[in-house]
Amino acid sequence: MYLNQHEIRSLIDKSFDNFVDFVNTLPDIRFTASPYGKWSAGQQLDHLTKSIRPISSALAFPKITLRYFGTAVMPSRSYEALVADYQRVLAGSFKAARAYQPGVIYPAQRPALLQGFLLQKNKILNKLSGWSEKDLDKYRLPHPLLGKVTIREMLYFIAYHNEHHLEKLKDQELQGHTWQNQLQQLIF
After folding, report:
1. Under a CB-based contact definition with an 8 Å cutoff, are residues 113 and 46 in contact?
2. Quick check: 89 pLDDT over 50?
3. Distance (Å, rounded) from C-alpha 105 to C-alpha 47?
4. Does residue 90 register a pLDDT over 70?
5. Closest CA to 91 of 164, 37, 171, 19
6. Which one, of 187, 169, 171, 186, lies nearest residue 43 by Cα?
7. What is the pLDDT of residues 138-182, one digit of tens each?
């Protein structure tokens, strides 16, 4: 499905809000605990913010500057096609680039991390109003795993990436291991 700017705004808004709503339900131990070597909710929040920040900054660049990355010769992929391509890349073994890896997160950091995450959402949504539908398909940005993608595809990615990490957190809950049991396993 090819999404227009209004639909992209809605998708991005929903993906950020869903992630924040879930994180806000977690007690501090679940916000900071890293079960089985996986990233904690706080670390995932930090990762998302770090990965979105360069994109929100790039949306404010003069469009002439973005020509450095070339202009698209093919139309943007649909949301589903972009997600399928990203999932295919994820199926291989890879790690997030060092710049996007989170550090150790403490409970006291939650408000600042949430504020930073929502600030990126607001920046993206505000800057998006300066883009035409045509320009979303014309200009490109580099993605560390997908190569050069159009601005529209990058916006699709942001929404999917948020949902992807939210699902990872939810899956940790559904694996049948309560956080208390995991903590006990680590201690004993």
Report:
1. yes
2. yes
3. 11
4. yes
5. 164
6. 169
7. 999 999 889 999 999 999 999 999 999 999 999 876 664 555 555
